[in-house]
Design goal:
Blueprint: E1 10-12, E2 15-17, E3 24-29, E4 34-40, H1 44-59, H2 67-83, H3 85-96, H4 100-120, E5 128-129, E6 136-143, E7 146-150, H5 156-169, E8 173-177, H6 184-195, E9 203-205, H7 210-219, E10 223-229, H8 232-243, E11 248-252, E12 258-261, H9 267-279, E13 291-295, H10 299-311, H11 331-346, E14 350-353, E15 368-371, H12 378-381, E16 388-394, H13 397-405, E17 409-410, E18 414-416, H14 420-429, E19 436-437, E20 452-453, E21 456-457, H15 462-468, E22 470-477
Bound molecules: NADP nicotinamide-adenine-dinucleotide phosphate.
NADP nicotinamide-adenine-dinucleotide phosphate binds at residues 150-155, 177, 179-181, 209-211, 214-215, 218, 229-231, 234, 237-238, 252-255, 286, 383, 385, 411, 451, 456.
Length: 479
């Protein structure tokens, strides 16, 4: 790979700057276990600077810009992202160990998200309402002000774009906080967006730890909305803190998504494609189909094909284009996953394959297929966020749906059948915000994405996301 320039400072008011404390934090390349750069880390004083300047940028220009001008700027941002896609992809691979071919796709997805919202600006419409007393009544979708966007480390660049693009398109300013493990592509986004014409202060990027600046950001009086993607536990904490000022929140949280395969489906295709639906991104995916329900009649041949396809996955150096699974993001994350595997061993689950460290260096783990996992076991119930799947047979549709919906999560899932009536019946009953039939896709830029139950609140993507960054105002004009 060609060497890339690494961002090492916060991106505030249109320029890279040191943090006020001068503190820095080392990033470790998960593929080599070597530190490779030190990045400035923000504290509460930097949060203040970022939010207050964003508020000024909002009041003195951004909120009053014409939709046409905002459209032009966001298309420029998209163009700039497309021009710098390779650099963005390489940064993503360096800091989180994402396979470069996936990182390239996700860099393109980020640009596509900006294009979509640049075009969607003129779709943000109000209504005219024929009220009983006559006169003229209409609604306006107004921007909120400064939005805090807090994103995780598993899809750092695309999720930063999912939040920044619709928030900016609907006329807000954004303070973006990437995860401590993955600040590089968010900082790059700030730099490129500014170079593309976004005025200074409209998109601020604060690298820094959630423990150090999370509360200060969420509780800041000038923050009007928090758009968060991450764990359910931190989402709950944010919601509690936001409730004090009745701040708006949207939360995209964890998942334990089902993959349901009926005997009448093209089950061989399901078996061959399903491993990547759980092991993609080394299982560090909120939509990972980590519970596979297979109808009893096809269970044995399904397992055989599923395990064979899993063993063929190429685990290794994320810089190589042929790699499908890179390392886990950190040694801590690998230890979390290994603790789940140890629990499965203790409880007598069968390992059909995987679960070992394949390389001496790098936080790698072979993808593990677990059978005979008890429905009360941790591996079945909890989000593992690593390359582990539990596969179980089912006989009765009603009982299977009870087991599917017993999870407190409800984010995504797949359903495989060639019976249309069954597909629609079961799709209605699965408690999740996203579901795909005879496929494993979860995310479409143009369609709403988000969860039921403990998987979240509100929606990213589609026009729903833009509406979520506005307040609805009703205006009445007397005759
Ligand atoms: P996390 O620990 O909740 O962190 C997410 C973000 O929140 C990071 O930027 C983190 O900063 C920050 N944070 C931590 N403590 C905070 C606090 N007290 N106040 C405000 N922000 C705080 O989650 P993660 O380990 O990064 O990501 C994994 C989780 O995200 C999984 O549960 C996964 O399912 C979920 N996820 C969901 C979606 C979705 O769309 N539904 C997508 C991706 C991931 P630091 O990194 O500095 O701690």
């Amino acid at each position: 790979m060609t060497p890339v320039r690494l961002p090492t400072q916060l991106f505030l008011n249109g320029a890279y700057r040191e943090s006020s404390s001068g503190r820095r934090c080392s990033l470790i390349n998960p593929a080599t276990e070597e530190p490779f750069v030190e990045v400035a880390t923000a504290d509460a004083a930097d949060v203040n600077t970022a939010v207050e300047s964003a508020q000024r940028a909002w009041e003195t220009g951004w909120r009053d810009l014409t939709p046409g001008k905002r459209t032009e700027i966001l298309f420029n941002v998209a163009r700039m992202l497309r021009e710098q896609m390779e650099e963005i992809a390489q940064l993503e691979t360096l800091h989180i160990g994402k396979p470069i071919s996936d990182a390239r796709d996700e860099a393109a997805l980020g640009a596509r998200v900006f294009e979509y919202y640049a075009g969607a600006i003129t779709q943000l419409c109000g209504e005219t309402i024929p009220v009983a007393r006559g006169g003229f009544d209409f609604t306006l979708r107004q921007p909120m002000g400064v939005v805090a966007a807090i994103v995780p480390w598993n899809f750092p660049f695309p999720i930063a774009c999912w939040k920044a693009a619709p928030a900016l398109a609907s006329g807000n300013c954004v303070v973006l906080k990437p995860a401590s493990l993955s600040p590089l592509t968010a900082l790059k986004l700030g730099e490129l967006a500014h170079a593309a014409g976004l005025p200074a202060g409209v998109l601020q990027v604060l690298a820094g730890s959630g423990a150090a600046i999370g509360d200060a950001l969420v509780a800041h009086q000038q923050i009007r909305k928090i758009s968060f993607t991450g764990s359910t536990a931190i989402g709950q904490r944010i919601m509690e803190l936001a409730a004090r000022d009745l701040k708006r929140v949207s939360l995209e949280l964890g998942g334990k998504s089902p993959n349901i395969v009926f005997a009448d489906a093209d089950w061989a295709r399901a078996a061959e494609t399903s491993p990547m639906s759980v092991f993609g991104n080394t299982g560090q995916d909120c939509c990972a189909r980590s519970r596979v329900f297979v109808e009893r009649g096809i269970y044995d041949p399904f397992i055989e094909r599923f395990v064979a396809a899993t063993k063929k996955l190429r685990v290794g150096d994320p810089a190589k284009p042929e790699t499908q699974l890179g390392p886990l993001v950190s040694s801590g994350q690998r230890e979390v996953v290994e603790a789940f595997l140890a629990d499965a061993r203790k409880r007598g689950s069968q390992f059909a394959c995987g679960g070992r460290r394949p390389h001496a260096r790098g936080y790698y783990l072979e993808p593990a297929v677990l059978l005979d996992v008890g429905k009360d076991d941790r591996c079945w119930r909890e989000e593992i966020f690593g390359p582990v799947v539990c596969v179980a047979p089912f006989e009765d549709e009603t009982q299977m749906l009870r087991d599917v919906n017993a999870s407190p999560y409800g984010l995504s899932g797949s359903l495989w059948t060639n019976d249309l009536r069954k597909a629609l019946r079961v799709a209605r009953r699965v408690e999740s915000g996203v579901l795909s039939i005879n496929s494993h896709s979860s995310v479409h830029t143009e369609a709403p994405f988000g969860g039921f139950k403990h998987s979240g609140l509100g929606r990213d993507l589609g026009t729903a996301a833009m509406e979520g960054y506005t307040e609805l105002k009703n205006v009445y004009v007397a005759e």
